[in-house]
User: What shape does this take?
Amino acid sequence: MKLQEQRPRKTFAQHWLKSEKALDAIVRAAQLQPGDRVLEIGPGTGILTRRLLRGVQSLVAVEIDRDLCDRLTKELGRDSKFLLLQGDFLSLDVPSLLQPFPGFQGLHKVVANIPYNITGPILEKLLGTIANPNPEPYDLLVLLVQKEVAERLVAKPGSRTFGALSVRVQYLANCELICTVPAGAFYPPPKVDSAVVRLVPRPTEPPALDTRKLEILIKLGFGAKRKMLRNNLLSFVERDRLTQLLEKLEINPQVRAEDLSVGQWVALANELGVKSQE
Ligand code: SAH
Assistant: This one.
C-alpha cells in the first residue's frame, strides 16, 4: 500500500515518516540486540515497526487509530514477535494489559516516532517526574520529536534553550541529540523540523533530598523569563536567605534560572531543606 492511500488524520498528529535515512538513524540509535523487548508508541502504517521487528525479540506497539490497527493486524498480526494494543497510550496501563502475554513483558526500550501534540505527557509517562520517577525505568528511549523540543531536552545550562523541561528531564536521564530530520522527511510534512533524541534514564547523584521541593523550585524559578532567580523565588524563600545560600554554593546571587546546572538546582533545593541556623 502506498503512503498516500492511508489518509493521515490531523487529530492524531499523523505524519508518516518516509526517509530511509531517518529510519536508519533511529534504528542505529536504538542499539538493538536480539534479546530486546521494545515498546513503540504510534506505529502508524508500520514503517518503523517493520524495521524494528527485524532486530528484536519482541515488540509491543500502541496505536490509537482503529483503522490503522486493522491494517497493522492484517500485515503483521501473524508475526509471533509482534503484539499490538489499540488505545490511547496516555491512558493505557501497558504492564497490566501484558499480563496474559508473558513473552511480551519486561519491555526495556522505547523506540518511536511519537505524536508531537502529546510529547510532554508521553515523556512524563515514560520517565515519570522528579518526585515520582518511573519505578521501573527503561534502559533507553529513542524518540523522534519536534526539533525545538529536542533542543530543550539536550540544552546545556546558560544556553537560550535551557529551561524547566531541560532540568526536569535531565534530572532523570542523559539526553543526547542524534540527528535532525527535516519536515520533508514526512508525509504530510509537519510545520516544524524534527530531531531524533536518545534518553538514557539514570539516577541523579547526589539526589534531591526533597524532590517535591525541587519541583516547586524549578517551577517558580523558571516562572518569569529572563528575571533573576532570586526575584522569581520571592514567594518561596526570603531574598537575603537565598542570597546567602547562593553565596555558600558559590553561585553568583544575580544568576538567572537558565544559568543553573541540574547539580546546582539539586544543591540549592537540598540547602533550602536545611533549617537556617540563625
Ligand atoms: N510511527 C509512524 C507514525 C507516526 S505519526 C511513522 O513514523 O510513520 C504518530 C502516530 O501516533 C500515528 O499513527 C497516530 O495515530 C498515533 N497516535 C496519536 N496519538 C496517540 C495516542 N494517544 N496513543 C497511541 N498512538 C497515538
Notes: The mean pLDDT is 94. Strands lie at 16-17, 37-41, 58-63, 82-86, 109-113, 140-146, 173-181, 186-187, 194-201. Residues 82 and 243 are 56 Å apart (CA to CA).
